[in-house]
What does this fold into?
Amino acid sequence: MSRITDVLVSIDTETILKNYPNISKNPAAPTLIDWKHVYMVTNQDNVVSGQAGGELDLKAQVGDLIRWRETSLSQSFEQAVIFYKFIGNQGNDLISPPSPRTATASVAVPNPSNPSVPSCQKVANHYWSSETLACGRVTYHFNFLIVDRNCQTIACCSWDPFISIHN
It folds into this structure.
């Protein structure tokens, strides 16, 4: 039975901007960042190694769906992170090309007048989605933008995680 593996990718934008003073602002030539500034988390049953790090190795079976969601550590309050390009390096024929998807989601938010009963609001949401097609190991790059509160691009970056597909 196929399953969905959700991966939350949280990126330390503050440290990246501090450690890379000449960071690229060109989407065609992003700065490759150290994987130590990226924290990927998924359900523990889906982890081969690297939970909560920038080198998360997922286990998946053929036909599974992987969904990546990106955020900054401030959850887009100070800076936001937006994936803009996926590049398969090795084994890229083992998964379908990840593509962005948009959806409207119901999100619980605190209710100041009754803290034990959250309010619900509809928000535009997005993720990148890919289907696993064959067994093996996939290494790839995700290129991402760091944008400020005014949605202006302040950095273009890249990093290279991997996936293991087993049956």
In short: The longest helix spans residues 13-19.
